[in-house]
Structure formats: structure tokens, C-alpha cells
Amino acid sequence: MFKRHKLWSTVAAAIALTLAVPTAMAETEAPISAEQKQPADTKVAADRYLKEHAKQYQLKADLSDLKYVTTIQTDAGHYVRYQQIVNNAPVFNRQVTVTLDRSFHNPLVISGYEPYTTVQQVSQLLPPGDLKAKALQFVGDQAQGEWAPSSEEYGYTIQKGVATPTYRVVVHSKAPYGAWETYIHAGSGELLRKRNLNQRVNGTGKVFLPNPVESQGSVGNLKDNNDQDSPELTKQLKSVTLQGLDGSGYLRGQYVYINSAAKTYSAANQFNYTRSNDSFEDVMAYYHIDTLQRYLQQLGFKNVNNRAIKVNVNASPDDNSYYQPSTGELTFGTGGVDDAEDAGVIAHEYGHAIQDNQVPGFGDSHEGGSMGEGFGDFLGATYEDATSSTSFGKACVAEWDATSYSSSNPPCLRRLDVNKVYPRDLQNEVHADGEIWSQGLYDMAQAFGRDVATKIIIQAHFSLTPTATFKDGAKAIKQADLQLYGGQHAGDIDRIWKARGIPTS
User: Fold this and answer.
1) pLDDT for 13-53, tens place per residue?
2) 156 phi/psi in degrees, rounded to 5
């Protein structure tokens, strides 16, 4: 119906070589030995720990099938990330992270490593020039072309214990519109898997703060009416400060770059519009994204999506919005209520950008995709709660946007208090199953306050891998609380996630 965008399909490779070997998705909380407590190099400590526990995680003893990627240092601890490799080429989206606290204690390993028994040999690789055409054909757009350049990378996928030579090709097709990730067998050219990379949310200055339904405290006489102004809607406009503009007269700044067909411009940097002007949505997107990034930095995160993100406003006629990992851009649609008129929708999409920045490729599993949708709803709902002058719409996200498709009071894109439990209530759809995850996050905000909960949740993302599960996410949350607050909230974290059916240990 709406925001159903985590789609993928898999075509089995014509390989019959060995039985499947289960993926290692393991973690530990055992302490590092005493002699490892004060290494000069964080990577040395992480390497040593993985070598000592290689059998537990089904790694090679010398870690020769892991390639070091990066070490992230924060005030709370250290995060060392590795990429699984075969013949020095990546196994796509298979990573391992080692989390250490500031004193190199309390290690947490989250592993997406996938064991294999055989490496398939290919006598002749596909010509690189054929890859884009094949990928476009697989997504159904060979004739109409692309709206952005494609990218190609050689590596491996593991299928039934076989390391299979694979090309990962990302194309940006016009129809069906979107960024598509395809995995193509490097020898036969058959499609192994495809995934729509667009993270979507159903659509929905002076600005609405956060949206006119919440600030008014009811739906009342508020109507979209094909983007026309009304006294009721104009009354809900609030004057705000737009920080960090570059002085060009456009909505471009430290953390946001608005790319709009409206060509919004003011030599005096004064952007006061009503909603019937398409520039209004430009101001909404700039203000709310900028505010969210400054909030993250206020919490101490200077290295989380700290960039001028490009935002395409009113760029699609559909009632959908997208985050595109392949380009790092946000796109907002105009179907129903214009999506960028609702801060909850804007925050949700920015949530996808945050997670992709912390863990590139995040959501390469159903539960990971569900965590992504749940986190976006959490970010939107808590931002609405914090910026609203009323309590209307609590535990609900995108009330104004939802007036075009919801008859509930308040109208909601999704709720964060429906008491779904894992695995009983799984529907195998990321937005529906994301309500399991979002309620746990939202309950943390109710228990600890928005700032503490958000800080723990953002910190926990550093520990995750592209294929992380609900259990991985809950364990990373508990680990982040240990690192940030000495485990002060451990009991409540256990209680909250137990209620959702997700263990924390």
C-alpha cells in the first residue's frame, strides 16, 4: 500500500557442490585477558581476540579471510570493522565488528561472517561492458536508461557453502524508478539476487513544527486540498532560524544541500513561504534535517552522517520518499500531502541516512531492514514529541502526511505502541515488522528520556553489520549502555526487550 520498498528476489545459482554451512552470527561478553588490557593499537587488541576465538566464530586461525576496514574511536569505546574476503575480493555485505570499551574490556563481537567449503572457479568472466545492460534488464528498464551513473564491483557471494564469483552492479533506473542493487553470476550472467535500495516512506520556512495536526492538537478542518493555503494551515506556521547557510542565497549549508525544481532563492536569506508555494517544502526539509544533525552532535556524535546531504524535494509525483544509499541522497514525493510538509516523514528518511552512514550496506537481511524502518519511525516520533506544543499524536508518526490515507484519530503512518511480539507477530514485511523494533526503542525513550535513549541507540549502531538481527541489535544496545552509562539502564533494557520477545544476552 505504501512504503513497501525492501524488495528483493533470489535466483538459485546452478551449482551443486556441497551442503550448506550455517552463517556465523555470534557474539560474546567474556573479558579480554589481562595482558591485552592496554595495547597501543586498538586493532592489535581486536585481532588478538579474534585469533584466540577464531574457532568460536568459524574464522581462519590467522584471520587471512578478514580484511581490516576501519577503527572508529568514540568517547565511549572503540569499534574495529573487518570485511570478509575470498582471494582478496570482498564477500559482499559480510562483515565482523569488534567493540571494546575505553579500557579494552567487555568485548562484543557481532559477526556476519559466512563459512564456505568450496571456491567456484569460472573459466571466463563476463565482459564489464555487458554488466549495466544485464542489470537494467533484470530490473525491467533496459529501454529507458538511467537517472544517475551505475557502479560495478567484483567479489563473492556464499551460496550453500560455495564462494561464488559475483558482480555487484548498482543501477539507477527511471522505470521502475529507483536505485537497484543486482548480484550477477560472474560467469553465467544469471541474476543471483536483486534489491531495491530506495528507503521509502509514504508521503507527506516558515515551517510546520512538527506538522499542523500535532501543533493544532487535532485534525479539525485541516485539509490538503491539492496543496492550497487555508487560514487554518497558515495559522500553524512557525518562524524558525535556519542555521549554517553558505550565503549563496540558496538553501545550502553545513549539513543540508537542497536540490529543488523550485529553485528557492533569497539574496537576503529570508525564506518565508506558505504551503502553496513549492519552496515551502524546501525550507521544511532544510530546517528539520539540519536540526536533527545538530541534535546528534549535541549528544556527542561528531562522526554520524556529518555531511551536507543532498535533498531532492518534490522530485517525484508518487506518494513515497526515498533514501538512496548508492548516491547518499534523499528524495521526497508529492502524492497525497507533500511528504516534505511533515517533519515525521523527513526524520524517518534521515534515519535511513544515519544508519547507512554508520554501517554501509545496513539492512541486508529482513530483520536488519525491519530495524531500519523501526529506527526511522522512532526518530520521527521522538522528534515530533520534542518539537510539538501539544501531546496529540504521542506514539504516532507523520500525522499530517497520514491524513491522505488514514481515518484513525489521530491519523498515523504507523504507531509505536501496538505491542507486537517477536516472533509471534512477524509478517515478513519490513514496515510491519519494524513496529516490533520501534516500540522497544520508543519505550526506552519513555523510560530514560529521549536524549539518553537516542544516545544509547546511535552508539549501538556502530556495533552492527549489514546482516545484523533483532538479537544483535538488542545486545548492541545493552553493550552501548554499559559503555556509556556503566550498565545503569541494564535492568530496564532487559525488561523492555523481553516484552518484545527479543533477548539481550
Assistant:
1) 222 222 223 333 344 445 544 344 444 489 999 999 999 99
2) -135, 155
The owner of cell 552470527 is: 25
Same domain, residue pair 140 and 278: no
Residue range 453-473: mean pLDDT, rounded: 98
Determine the distance from the C-alpha atom of residue 332 to the mean position of all C-alpha atoms in its chain, rounded to a whole number: 16
- What would the mean pLDDT of 273-300 be, rounded to a whole number? 96
- Name the pairing type of β-strands 320-324 and 329-333: antiparallel
pLDDT band of residue 261 (cuts 50, 70, 90) is confident
Which pLDDT value is given to residue 144?
A: 63
Give 142's pLDDT tier (boundaries 50, 70, 90). Answer: low
Among the listed residues 396, 394, 442, the one whose alpha carbon sits nearest the alpha carbon of residue 415: 396
Same domain, 169 and 214: no
For residues 115 and 184, give the distance between their C-alpha atoms in angstroms, rounded to a whole number.
Answer: 21
Residue of higher predicted confidence among 140 and 302: 302
Q: Interhelix angle for 470-485 vs 366-387, to 10°? A: 50
Q: Are residues 77 and 157 in the same domain?
A: no
Count structural domains, the chain.
3
Average pLDDT, stretch 181-202? Answer: 86
Nearest to 237 by CA among 268, 280, 270, 278: 280
Burial pattern 101-140, b for ≥16 Cβ within 10 A else e, equals beebebbbbbbbbbbbeeebeeeeebeeeebbebbbebbe
Query: What was the pLDDT predicted at 197?
Result: 84
In angstroms, the CA 328 to CA 338 distance is 21
Residues 259, 377 within the same domain: yes
- Which structural domain, as residue segments, surrounds residue 402? 201-499
pLDDT tens digits, residue range 389-444?
899 999 999 999 999 999 999 999 999 999 999 999 999 999 999 999 999 999 99
Residues 6 or more apart whose CB falls under 8 angstroms from that of 144 comprise: 173, 174, 175
Q: What is the mean pLDDT of the chain?
A: 89
In terms of domains, do 180 and 304 share one?
Answer: no
Cell 556529518: give the residue.
306
Q: Which residues pair with 80 in a beta bridge?
A: 71, 98
Last residue of a domain, one of 178, 197, 216: 197
Clarify whether residues 177 and 216 are in a common domain. Answer: no
Q: Which residues contact 220 (CB under 8 A, 6 or more apart)?
A: 232
**Which strand (E) or helix (H) includes residue 156?**
strand 146-159
Q: Any residues with CB less than 8 A from the CB of 276 and at least 6 apart, and which?
A: 227, 228, 229
Same domain, 192 and 218: no
Give dist(CA 18, CA 351) in Å, integer.
40
Residue 26 lies in a domain: no
For 21, list phi and psi in degrees, rounded to 5: -115, 125
Q: CA separation (Å) from 182 to 13, 135, 179, 429, 491?
A: 14, 6, 10, 20, 43
